[in-house]
Amino acid sequence: MGDRVPLAIIGAGHHAAVVRDCVDDSRFRVIGYLDDRLPIGSPIGGETVLGRLAELPAIAARHPGTAAVVAIGDNMVRLRVVDVVERSIPELPWATIVHPSAIISRSAEIGPGCVIVAGAIVNCHTSLGRHVLINTGARLDHDNIFGDFASTGPGVSTGGDVRVGTFSHIGIGASVRHGIRIGNHCVIGGMAFVDRDVEDQLVCFGVPARPQRHRMRGAAYL
């Protein structure tokens, strides 16, 4: 398999198992997980918990060339972890993880730290920012732009020329009409159909989706 990149997975919950399943083992060698809740040595599939997040610098030093990925579904929690890591090891590279069954256009731009799960489609000229999560079977059509730390649930479908702001989440099975703009820190409810632009920090759901309430930045949604 040649020289594979050592990969540390940050987080050891159910979503981490999904991320591990996406890893291309011909490119990466998973060295284990970092998690602040589980004891060192806890088994996660075929690997174990190596330590807490604060121990990442020492772990990376033992494995030269280590890259990392944050396997945490909540957008704001993912940001907090990234901030901690970038302060302690600014030179650490972020891995982009794409399941082998995902279809990514050659003209798509995928930012560092993104995770694209099984069966997802990212069509031509679509751009994903840093640490974006595209979940199982989501379909992003042409010329979409997803801001940093945005995410989708499984089965989301977007038309062409859609914009999704930073930290926004589109819930499971929701659809977004072509040309729609969704602001920052928004949550679109599961199975919604978005046919109008959505301003920043709104929670919208329904068919058609309509604003239900204002959302505080970082408020829990999963």
Describe the structure.
There is one protein chain. This protein is α/β, with parallel strands linked by helices. It has two domains: 5-88, 3-Layer(aba) Sandwich (Rossmann fold); 97-213, Hexapeptide repeat proteins (UDP N-Acetylglucosamine Acyltransferase, domain 1). It contains three helices and 24 strands. The strands form five sheets. Strands 7-10-13-16-19-22 form a six-stranded parallel β-sheet, with no helix packed on it. Helix 1 links the parallel strand 1 (5-10) and strand 2 (28-34). The longest helix has 14 residues, at 75-88. The radius of gyration is 17 Å and the shape is globular. 43% of the residues are buried.
In short:
This protein is an alpha/beta fold. 14% of the residues lie in helices and 30% in strands.
Number of contiguous helices: 3
Beta-strand share of residues: 25-35%
Helix content: 10-25%
**Main sheet characteristics:** 6 strands, parallel
- In the CATH hierarchy, what is the class of the largest domain? Mainly Beta
Rg, nearest Å:
17 Å
Number of structural domains: 2
Please report the distance between the alpha carbons of the first and last residues: 38 Å
Chain-averaged pLDDT: 97
